[in-house]
Specification:
Elements (H helix, E strand, L loop, with lengths): L3 H10 L5 E4 L11 E4 L1 E5 L4 E5 L2 E10 L2 H16 L15 E6 L7 E8 L17 E5 L2 E8 L5 H17 L8 E6 L11 E6 L8
Antiparallel strand pairs: 1-2, 3-4, 4-9, 5-7, 5-8, 6-7, 6-10, 9-11, 10-11
The protein binds 2-acetamido-2-deoxy-beta-D-glucopyranose.
2-acetamido-2-deoxy-beta-D-glucopyranose binds next to loops.
Amino acid sequence: MIYLSGLVGFLLVVTAEAGVGNSSQLPFCFETTQCLLFDLICKTKNYEVRHYSSVKWVSTDEESYFMELASSKAFKRLYNYITGDNKNKENIEMTAPVIVKIPDKMFWEKGVFTTSFLLPAEYQTNPPIPTDDKVYFQDTPDMYVYVQTYRGWILTFSDKSVANSLSSALNSVHAAYQKDSHYAAGYNSPMTVFNRHNEVWFVAEDVPRCF
Ligand SMILES: *[C@@H]1O[C@H](CO)[C@@H](O)[C@H](O)[C@H]1NC(C)=O
């Protein structure tokens, strides 16, 4: 009843392209040939609701006070994996986005940050075994996420300010979402200066709210 309008929106706009696909379908994903595609469920003035299919990532964890420190160490480790540090010495192409799972914590607390590269379509099943035992695979579930987008670089302060803005928008419509962490999603190489595109994702815990 209270969810009905959200549900109707959801039924109207679902298409069937979520998964790892051709980057030409996603205007802000222009640096890699494959990107993570999604179904856009709805867009309010404060956020987008997206549906993602279950996909496989190569991931690594770093405990730290700072996201910047954790993600740069993690990025190197994952980059080594895709450039040959695997049992078959295979080169695996870079995809987008790179996601960092950021724990909700106070700045004086340490937290575990999980950085993940999306495996290309041809490696979604049977990716080569990593040689570094800190590198592992995980599948994100089929999920709905609330998204806000921003320009520039993913830094603790920019991520936090967008995450705060998104969570207040979600709280004001009584949306149910996972509050112990969120994702930072980046679509650009660190060298890229123009048209950088970053996102904050909160994972929905219920039928997503579209108002
Ligand atoms: C991706 O789409 C573009 C434009 O439709 C096409 O030219 C290209 O060949 C596609 N790439 C792959 C890997 O399918």
